Amino acid sequence: MQSFVRWAGSKRLLINELAKYWPSDECRYIEPFAGSACLFFHLEPRSAVIADLNSELISMYRELQRDVELVLECFRRLRRGERSYYSIRGQDPDRLAPTEAAARFLYLNRYCFNGLFRTNQKGTFNVPYGPPKKPLKYFEDRVRAGAVLMKNAELRAGDFETVSNCVAKGDFVYLDPPYAVRERRRIFSDYLPHSFSEKDIARLGGVLDHIDAAGALFLLSYSDSPEIANLKDRWRVRRITSRRNIAGFVGARRLASEVLITNLRG
């Protein structure tokens, strides 16, 4: 199954490599930085905890759990086109009914530039119009299928460290935080106010220790950068090359080195 959510930094192109670390269908799957949750949808686990700091994203997933057809009905009512996009973007989601807010999220995600989610310091979504060049085929069918799988998941909105407190023996935790690298490297890092940053890397290391001590397995995907040298020294590391699809123009997209860090033996 493929995710129906467009997401900057999605690991869709690495999905087959990531899936190699999935130990068993009997494991509970936990993802504290969910985003498009592409690995979750690919693996189709029987039990999961899906979490993200982005409360709008989690609310959208929750409404799809509750009544996917009502969300899609609201989605169809939203008018297409650039002028309508900016009008809908200007709405305050807190003033909408939950199903309408979920439909708005799906709409903005589908028609915004490059699938980015970015807010200003007030937390207001501010990505310009930029729909996919190719229509998303069978979009509603993919949303319905995703909603069925989401019924296997507990949804949480919150910080990754708080989410990690639920980890128990035998769980599998996949962590894919936004890349908090120095500005000179020109990797997109804007997301939400108080989002993951370089100062959080030490906390991330503590979370990996906590997961390991609990008897659970983890997989962390990250940019191969000096900022995580300490993590690379402590755990099993594999370097891979992937294409970054965050840049605004195809010519600016490039191959980049990434690392997969895990406590999985073998």
Question: What is the topology?
Answer:
Layout: H1 15-19, E1 29-31, H2 38-43, E2 48-52, H3 55-77, H4 82-89, H5 98-111, H6 139-150, E3 153-157, H7 160-163, E4 172-175, H8 201-213, E5 217-223, H9 229-234, E6 236-243, E7 255-262
Parallel strand pairs: 1-2, 1-4, 2-3, 4-5
Antiparallel strand pairs: 5-7, 6-7
Would you mind describing this structure in some detail?
- There is one protein chain.
- This protein is α/β, with parallel strands linked by helices and 266 residues long.
- It has one domain: Rossmann fold (3-Layer(aba) Sandwich), CATH 3.40.50.
- It is built from 9 helices and 7 strands; from the N terminus they run αβαβααααβαβαβαββ.
- The chain has helices spanning 15-19, 38-43, 55-77, 82-89, 98-111, 139-150, 160-163, 201-213, 229-234; strands at 29-31, 48-52, 153-157, 172-175, 217-223, 236-243, 255-262.
- A 7-stranded mixed beta sheet has the order 3-2-1-4-5-7-6, with helices on both faces.
- α3 crosses α5.
- The longest helix is centred in the N-terminal third of the chain and has 23 residues, at 55-77.
- It is globular.
- The two termini are 28 Å apart.
